[in-house]
Amino acid sequence: MRYGRMFVPIVVMAMAAGCATLPAGPAVEVLPARGKSFETFRSEDASCRQWAQQQVGSSVQETYQRDVTTGAVGGTAIGAGVGALFGSASGHAGAGAAIGAATGLLAGSVIGSGAGEATASEAQRRYDNAYVQCMYSHGNQVPGYRPASAPPPVAATPPPAPAPPLVAAPEPEYAAPELDLAEAPQFIYAPELNMYVAVGVPYDLVYSGRDYYCFYRGRWFRGPYYNGPWEYVPRRSYPTVFLRFRIGDFRHYRDREYRRYEDEGEHYRGRFYRPEYRREWRGRGREDD
Prior knowledge:
By secondary structure, the chain is α+β, with helices and mostly antiparallel strands. It contains six helices and seven strands.
């Protein structure tokens, strides 16, 4: 009977340790979004509590009690065995087992309670995280919460200034050809070029059938007559034949066609062209009187 009276307070203490109450819901503060009705907020809260509970797997309270019970049962069994061992040595095996069991129950409950609190704390943390993510996805306000994937806020940078409009660079000024011709030159048709090329003059003159071209100091110039006035021709405005052949090719086809003319004489079937003579141009667009 004396051992029974000692056993009662121990059991009460163990039961008190195993019956600690933990939060049955989220331990974080969530506020409804601005303009959201309270009924909508309550509905979202209930839905998010259920979803968070599913993520944890079992309630926080169940996790806590399971660990406490496991510790108490294990402590009781171990305590009873140890108490019986020492009690048999003194001739009181039953009393020793009872005392050991009670002591083991208390110790096991305390140990189980500590393990349960650690497990419950982790479960509570996972529950809160799941709940907060759910409520945040509904647009509710969670003080101090920011999703892990959200980048830190940065100051907005002003848009870049619009680029200035592109302005075409003016055409460079090149010295126009100055030709000294006492008469209109003779042009012979080169089939490879599909153009007439001047012969018997120290200038590279070409006639396309509409415009005259002069190759002067490494550049092409164009004019309405064989003696100008001349204007510089940029590469983008070249006739196709100027892109296909170099000035050396023009001279080669000119000389070859002219030799053919000299060899065949009156039997030559090629074409010649001699423009009307015009006085030398002085400046642009003005003919010398």
